[in-house]
Amino acid sequence: MDLPGARTHERLRNFPPPEDWDNHVEYDAKAHPRKVPHTYSLIPTICFNCESSCGLLAYVDHDDLSIKKFEGNPAHPGSRGRNCAKGPATINQVHDPERILYPLKRVGERGSGKFERVSWEEALADIAGRIRAAIVEDRKDEVMYHVGRPGEDGFAERVLQAWGVDGHNSHTNVCSSGGRSGYTHWMGYDRPSPDYANAKVMLLLSSHLETGHYFNPHAQRIMEAKQNGAKLVVLDLRLSNTASHADLWISPWPGSEAAIFLSVASYLLRTRKIDRDYLRRWVNWDVYMERLHPDAPQEFEVFLERLTEDYAQYTFEYAAKEAHVPVAQIEELARIVGESGSRLATHTWRSAAAGNLGGWQITRSLFLLNVLTGSVGTVGGTHPNGWDKFIAHYPDMPEANDIWSEKLWPQEYPLTTNEMSILLPHLLKDGRGKLDVYFSRVYNPLWVNPDGFTWIDVLKDESKIGLHVALTPTWSESATFADYVLPMGHASERHDTMSFETHASKWLAFRQPVQRVAMEKRGIPYQDTRDANPGEVWEENEFWFDLSWEIDPDGSLGIRRYFESKARPGEKMTQDEYYDNLFGNSVPGLPEAAEAQGMTPLEYMRKYGVFEVAKDVYRLDERPLTEVELEGATPDEKGVLRKPVTLETAPPLVGEAGAVGVVHEDGSKTAGWLSPSRKLELYSTTLADWGWPEHATPGYIESHVSARKIDRSNDEFVLMPNFRLPTMIHTRSGNAKYLNEISNTHPLWFNKGDATKLGVATGDLVRVSTEIGHFVVRAWATEAIRPGVVGLSHHMGRWTQEGHPGSRWVMGKVDLNRSEDGIWKLRYKEGIKPFKSEDPDSERIFWDDPGVHQNLTFPVQPDPVSGMHCWHQKVRIEKAHDGDQYGDVEVDVNKSREVYRRWLAMTRPGPGPGGQRRPEFMMRHVTPKRSAYRVAEASSVGGEGQ
Ligand code: SF4
Which residue minimizes the CA distance to atom 2 of ligand 1? Predict the structure, then answer.
């Protein structure tokens, strides 16, 4: 048979056909030259090693139901059978001899690194008891779930909503808040989805092809477009693998990118290489004129003239001066973009938007190029993510809660894209409440965040965090500061639905515990996933169901019913029941497709692991509104169609409450965008009315590391610490030996000319000083990074203390000391060494470098608008001092408090118009009722002591 997703037989010839997936025979490679056949079930699941959610096929051996390997799932429309190195490395994670297999409870003081095995029942009873007390005693902001690598969209949110707590925290403001902010203020959607495969020009502001967002699915489509003649332009401070594939590579001074894009926008305007009809219909030009040119005739042609004049200041020469690059490069970029027409695919995500103060304006400026050329939602253009992603919401959602946690959404950051998670330790130190139960979930907060020593101070303080529960498949620095360490499943040991905007289609994929599925196929009984997974590793879904049940054992809190079987009242819902309901009722087209093959929707998803919900999705802004959508909707003075809502309703996940679409000049009524005006907001009334009128239009904000602020004569540089290696998984690579074998060192990229001036050669130790401390690292003198900038990759610098648990594949042993007055020192006393384990490869370790934990030396630098931690650091570099050792870190946490206060003073606190804490159209994972958005109405918690 042909696979779903319209894959061609030509493409499929390297993959076993689905008819064979229950009985696939391969010869044992290790037995070569003998031919020893093994029979496998090929069971689909989803990679858990980055957000792309590529399809995997687990090869489960019929002899013993062990997993022998993972390969790509050809049925997956996003990844199309392909994976990066991290996908197949899932096999290492499953068989890692260092992984956590049993629930553990702290012994001794927190941070002692001593744990003992406990039963799941004991852990559940303790944790549930505390959560129940917090709920009953109305301390609903004292329970917090802090997520690193997310799983199923909406799952944890549903659990937290059922509990009635405001406790969803994310890692996003060390990741993508800056990028999201820029897109949000254009269109309400917070990410782009470029249609690379059909593009004429691809403009990437990152090392996207190499490691960036949706790495494998995007990279394969970028290469396809290149093969079809598309041009690739890359802005990257390094000559990354991505830049090396570019037709034009520009390496600007960090933070100057917006000036470059605005100069290109200015060129498009003055040469009229713009899509006038698109601008007239879809841009809120009327608001631009009202707010910025109220005395001019309020006409479209006048708007174009004024817009051209307003951006005329951004000349190529100006941009070149800001960016410290040749004018000719910017002229070339403008010429290429000018020829793209409606097929301009652009992307930025972390990179510059995550590095610089005002990074969100870099995103606004980049997307301006799409808007001007009308390449938004077109074939080969750039879409909003929401068009190309499908979230399956469980039909039975609990009522929205009515509280607002100031520990997540402090009043100083009313426009932050996501929770202000980097500030959590500082907010707790400020006395803005405490946490009774804190879940770190597949998350290593003290390692990955800036200012990790302040995290340690707070994690150790039981008056600030009553109970820390680390839900993790593998040891991390943070897990050793937990009270419970609970082992969660890897990609092949858990359920999740996943969907991401990999291309101009929508798909929903299914992660599943493959050995449990194999047991089911053979009629082998099991109670839950623990019976199939190694040790007592549990899948999270079942854990949350059981925990919720335990919090409300008699159902009196109204929580239990959301986790109760419909078919067997009074008993827990199984995962099969949950997904049967989800796939049967929330995924358009799936029941019919399944029926056509004589299957239930759940059987279909277990078989193929994915369903393509929609194909070739374009221009949904022009989607006519349905009668149901129009019923009761009336247009406001700007043509926004709204339905009546009360304060008791919750805003939709994104989109302004009550708004369903827009009426155009020609009378047509279409869905439009999720912005307040339902149009693309060249002029953002949100930014203007919430305190930032000078930044209401795409503009240029001088970065905190602009060239003017770096004293090169005093050996100051910009440190770029936020680039990734394509083979590493944040801090979870530790349990993937293949990946450590490939990537096991991270020198400081140092421009050769700069290094020579300092008298530094490759391999020399240098001391890199930030505002709060310093670290010591080895230099790599290279032409592959621009002068004035140094770069140190993310992922490395892993450590554990003597006698503490950890992953010996990647962690060195350190001495960790804190003086009475807040000076922390970390020093390696042992690198990585071979060790004995059940895996003979652990004795073959040839690498010894654990890397340098640079993030410890960074203060928090949250952008006052987006909340994004601005990763770039102004640093001073000198040769290592006498006595310095590789990997040394020293930090003064008193200074980190000072820097926190300085950046806090840059904010313009809420509430905004109407006494609101936050605009309703901006995303919030657990969305409370509209009343909670209003200061006067909400039962605010945690806001005291500010
Ligand atoms: S890009 Fe790599 S790590 Fe990410 S989901 Fe795909 S295979 Fe896994």
Answer: 84
